[in-house]
Fold:
Amino acid sequence: MKRVPLFLLVLLLVSTVYATQNKNAKPKKPKAAAIDCSTVSDAKITEDVKAKLASTKSLKDLSINVVANAGVVALTGSVKKGIQKALATSQTKRVACVKKVENQITVQGAAASNKNARPKNSNRRKAANKNM
Structure:
């Protein structure tokens, strides 16, 4: 008779251990070592940003100029789509020791499309006021 409670206790312990294991848990990635940004030169930041942009699929064939000054990175050049401009900013922010990004990249065709845009309803309002 003593075997039944002992068996149930062992079964309970085994099932508890099995239930607490998370089979979908991913192993934690080790964090990169902290970088002392006071020792990182602007040339190194510029090099790292250029490498990051070159490794980004939709940005690698574009001509984007990078200049770093005290951790502030200025991006210049031109791209075809506005999303590429935004992506350049986000990728630059991911580089270590970048404090701020000044994105001066121009989007090709953006100025031309604005010239063809219709003016706001100012003419319609004037015509409506004349008819009253």
